[in-house]
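Sample intake sheet
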Amino acid sequence: LNDAEMGKISGYTNPNESEHDFFIVGHTSTSVSLACGLAKARDLKGQKHNVIAVIGDGSLSGGEALEGFSNAAVLGSNIIIVVNDNEMSIAENHGGLYTNLRLLRQTRGQAECNMFKALGFDYRYVEDGNSVTAMIDALSAVKDTNKPTVLHVHTVKGKGYSFAEENKEKWHWNLPFDIRSGEVTLDLGNNENYNDITFNYLHERLKTDKDIVVITAGTPGAFGLTPERRKAFGRNYVDVGIAEEHAVAFSSALAKGGCKPVFCVWSSFVQRTYDQLSQDLAINNNPAVILVFSAGISGMDVTHLGGFDIPLISNIPNIVHLAPTTKEEYLAMLNWGLEQTSHPVVIRVPAEVVSSESAVETDYAKLNTYETAHQGSEVAILALGSFFELGRQVAAKLKKHNIDATLINPRYISGLDEKLLENLKQEHQLVVTLEDGELDGGFGEKIARFYGGDTMKVLTFGAKKEFTDRVPLAELYQRYHLT
């Protein structure tokens, strides 16, 4: 396949690609819940067919997986759950339930202690799940069952490709590579990135501050936390498994207990955590730090978009939501977040590393204080976070049209600098907001609402409320007038 053809393949279940895919699904731990609904609908309609869910052992650590299993066990009719147990999540598995999976593998499914049977499932074990013959026999045996059934299948992650078998974590996903050598064929360069910046800061700080706890939810590689780096953190690193909800509640309680939690999460996984962000964290106002990576408009597939976190997080009371524009500002905000004890702090990590031209603020306790990078008149540009450079470019272009625009770095996503906004009325007729995410419920709408009763005009620029699927970033910027 060439690149264009390859780009048409979603990589996840998708009804447009297979009649056996009923849902567009990219995030893990959901298959059993979805299968429960299909099975119940089938039963209510008096139909007869097999409903099969496939779930990996790594996905079992997600809370929804356990909710689905609990419901499926009492369905009282045909539902077949294939547990693909390759002894790996994205990285290694974490959690107590893997003790029982290990016991079941060691006894080839014969152990009396069996969590699936304890829930009420019929249970069958397949030792060589990579054997087509063994799988045909097992599936034939459970086909048309009238009971909730678990088919526990032991497989080898990366089976058939030596590089993947030998380094399972690295090969969970990979950039384009040469199939013979396994070497990546893209020139990645040696550009500075926020994964390294974050690790270096936290690793250095841990030498003197043993209260810091770094937390991930089953995706350490997404933040450059290699096995070596995880080992360097020692007891101060916790992977909670694919359980973002638990990670937020866990972080809140760590902060309550006197520690300094730092939870690293991708933007596209934040929506799982809304209840915990609101109830377990914000209501209790515990000073946990959450770093949101891969945030912003992107050309990713529909299940991994990073443009929805601003409306989701910034509208929850008590959370201080920060948007750094440079490396120095990011480190200052992270340092402040770990030192202060008054609020939960969420930092939206920029994509590209840019250095500050001047000294940055180190204390962000005076909430919602915007920074004026350049004082002009007529037009004021409020350029949030990673779009601050775009704001600079807009200001430079306006200069050619004899407009000396004011350029503002808002820094705070979750609140308004009412004094600054009020003062803009004196010398300006137009305010422009730029944000790297969805406009609906976002930062720009807060500014527009502030000026709602005034003559000030406001133009908000960001993403439309829509699901996009592998649309090139340049095309999206054109669509949203962000060039």
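Comment: The CA atoms of residues 252 and 281 lie 5 Å apart. The mean pLDDT is 95.
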